[in-house]
Specification:
By secondary structure, the protein is α+β, with helices and mostly antiparallel strands. The protein has six helices and seven strands. It has helices at residues 13-16, 30-40, 60-70, 115-118, 138-148, 167-175, and strands at 44-48, 54-59, 94-95, 101-102, 131-132, 152-157, 160-166.
């Protein structure tokens, strides 16, 4: 279905969701997760156990939160980290205009050898999954993402994972609509 032929209120999650969903296992290490995120150019993924059951979601936010706790750094944001980013323009956590997520390895120079890198994903994942129905409208999706302050939702149809939808998918669909 072409998004240019419809109004926002007529579009549903199934019109814009990704049906090929990359997932990770809870036993994967955070170091391996970071490498996968970087090579796949993604910032999050569902966590699925060996039985195929979705047990959570993990994102760069989870990695950062855990890394800050591990480093015993308490900050409201990356910008609040005292002096960490001075002289390191372009090396922090940011999203490029193309949507590429860059992980802040420079904030934790020893990350590959730290306890964080060897910890399993199950230790840092968000065990609550945020899900929507495939027939939810885009305005319903937008309200859901805003209310949850989240950037991705899993799409379930009768307890079966059928897709993933992100804020970028929502923005892309709206941008494709005729003016």
């Amino acid at each position: 279905m072409e998004t240019t032929e419809m109004a926002v209120s007529e579009l549903t999650v199934s019109d814009i969701m990704r049906t090929e969903v990359f997932s990770v296992e809870p036993e994967l290490t955070v170091g391996e997760l970071i490498k996968l995120f970087m090579t796949r150019d993604i910032s999050g993924a569902p966590v699925v156990n060996r039985d195929g059951v979705v047990v959570g979601v993990v994102s760069t936010t989870d990695i950062l939160r855990f890394a800050l706790d591990e480093a015993e750094v308490k900050a409201e944001s990356v910008e609040d980290l005292p002096g960490e980013m001075e002289g390191r323009e372009g090396e922090g956590f940011y999203m490029t205009p193309e949507g590429t997520a860059h992980f802040p390895m420079v904030l934790f120079p020893g990350l590959p050898g730290t306890r964080l890198a060897s910890r399993p994903v199950r230790d840092i994942m968000t065990s609550v999954t945020f899900s929507v129905r495939p027939d939810a409208t885009l305005p319903e999706l937008a309200r859901f993402l805003l209310k949850g302050k989240i950037h991705r939702a899993l799409v379930f149809d009768h307890r079966h994972l059928v897709g993933l939808v992100t804020t970028l998918d929502l923005v892309r669909a709206i941008a494709d609509l005729p003016s």
